Amino acid sequence: MTNYTKLPAILLLADGTVFHGKAAGKIGTTTGEICFNTGMTGYQEIFTDPSYFGQIMVTTNAHIGNYGISNEETESNKIQIAGLVCKNYNIAYSRKQADESIQDYFQEQNITCISDIDTRQLVRHIRDKGAMNAIISSEILDVEELKARLASVPSMDGLELSSQVSTNETYTFGNEDATYRVAVLDLGVKKNILRNFSERDVYAKVYPAKTSFEEMEADFKPNGYFISNGPGDPSAMPYAIDTVKDILEADKPMFGICLGHQLLALANGIPTKKMFNGHRGLNHPVKNILKDHCEVTSQNHGFGVVQDAVRASEKVEITHINLNDQSIEGIRVKDKKAFSVQYHPESSPGPHDSRYLFDDFVDLMK
Ligand SMILES: NC(=O)CC[C@H](N)C(=O)O
Fold first, then answer.
1. Distance between CA 228 and CA 255 in Å, rounded?
2. In a domain, 240, yes or no
3. CATH code, 144
4. Is 302 a pocket residue for ligand 1 (Cβ < 6 Å)?
5. Which of 4, 53, 115, 255 is paired with 267 by a 20 to 30 Å CA distance?
6. What DSSP letter does each residue of 230-293 carry, written as one string?
7. Does position 63 have pLDDT exceeding 70, yes or no?
8. What tens digit of pLDDT does each residue of 189-235 get?
9. d(CA 100, CA 365)
10. Are 193 and 257 in contact (CB under 8 A)?
11. Are residues 166 and 147 in the same domain?
12. How confident is residue 6, by pLDDT bands cut at 50, 70 and 90?
């Protein structure tokens, strides 16, 4: 196990607030939008979720790294967060199945982190002030210099990031002889979505973010289309909005998760907006208004669909509502085979209450 230095490090927020902590991961400097996740477990799935690309993650659970890193528990092939802010950064781990320590993992992948931060205080601050950019450094300890660097970091509002995390080449997932074929538009797809498909007799082919509907249709003749989760601002992705419009036009079965949900709304003329604070955690109650039941859901989003526009829309109907803030969590397009949810039914990590949505998608393809 690598030596853990406990050198000083600084976290500076865009509003000028400074937190002092200890260096973790690679010695260096990193920037991004700061966000927090309230999950009590599943840190590695969070680190590797491509939807977090470009974001600095604050974990509210007091212990991170305590069960180590396992090569099996990833949602993509690398760490996607821009940096980690945590309280106790445990390089000693207690799990037989773990492959390495959190420190080795972050160091190997050159990700700069900061530990020994009072994350309760930090999260209360972000909760009151809203999402903002931040910088972590364990090499520059001069706050004025950090402020100057932070000033040049772009705002998440208006940022297109999916093309940076999407696959460059197509690939397939699952059994070639499966009953159903799904074309996956990879805007930052999580592996557990593909696993959920293959468990349901679906053979998936994953396409780069900018692939058109015509190309996917000609290449794979799929029974349905999946629009994935992913990072960045959905309104900055006209290419994907056009693809979704074409799929709708052809009236193919379509399922969208998170970013895919926002794009389905945009394709129906419903705008999205940046949230004051995103939803990120594993215990968000959502009401399925078609079935009149509540699901406990896994969430990770910083943008949302504009509620009034959804309610006023003649094209879509609301299927799911967030019980914490009444925001729209699911829609379906009237007279089409297309639906989407803002939360994460593949729940990795998270409760499995919403896995039925994958079954619903398969039913649409029958
Ligand atoms: N998990 C996701 O797909 C996130 C979607 C979008 N980037 C957001 O932050 O709202």
1. 9
2. yes
3. 3.50.30.20
4. yes
5. 53
6. -SS-GGG-HHHHHHHHHHHHTT--EEEETHHHHHHHHHTT--EEEEEEEEEEEEEEEEETTTTE
7. yes
8. 999 999 999 999 999 999 999 999 999 999 999 999 999 999 999 99
9. 42
10. yes
11. no
12. confident
Ligand 1 pocket residue status of 232, Cβ below 6 Å: yes
Q: Per the domain annotation, does 157 fall within a domain?
A: no
Where is the binding site for L-glutamine, in residues?
51, 230, 232, 259, 262, 300, 302-303
User: Is the torsion defined by CA of 318, 319, 322, 326 positive or negative?
Assistant: positive
Tell me, yes or no, whether 146 and 170 share the same domain.
no
Last residue of a domain, one of 151, 180, 209: 151
Peptide bond preceding 222: is omega within 30 degrees of 0, i.e. cis? no
Residue-range definition of the domain harbouring residue 133: 8-151
Q: Are residues 234 and 350 in the same domain?
A: yes
Average pLDDT across the chain, whole number = 97
In terms of domains, do 201 and 291 share one? yes
What are the residue numbers of the active site?
A: 258, 344, 346
Q: How confident is the model at residue 1 (pLDDT cuts 50, 70, 90)?
A: very low
Among 119, 151, 183, the domain-final residue is 151
Same domain, 185 and 67: no
Report the domain count for the chain. 2
Predicted confidence (pLDDT) per residue in 274-325, tens digit: 999 999 999 999 999 999 999 999 999 999 999 999 999 999 999 999 999 9
If asked whether residues 85 and 131 sit together in one domain, one would say yes
- Determine the distance separating the centroid of ligand 1 and the alpha carbon of 261, expressed in angstroms: 9
CB 214 within 8 A of CB 246: yes
**Residue 5, pLDDT score:** 66
What is the interface pTM, i.e. ipTM, of the complex?
Answer: 0.98
Q: pTM for this structure?
A: 0.97
Which residue of 53, 185, 300, 327 sits with most ligand 1 atoms within 8 Å of its CB, as the best mutation to test the pocket?
A: 300
Q: Is residue 293 part of a domain?
A: yes
Euclidean distance between CA atoms 173 and 191, whole angstroms = 10
Our answer on whether the CB atom of 258 is closer than 6 Å to any ligand 1 atom is yes
Residues 186 and 145 in one domain: no
Query: Are β-strands 180-185 and 171-173 bridged in parallel, bridged antiparallel, or unpaired?
Result: unpaired
Q: Residues 167, 89: one domain?
A: no
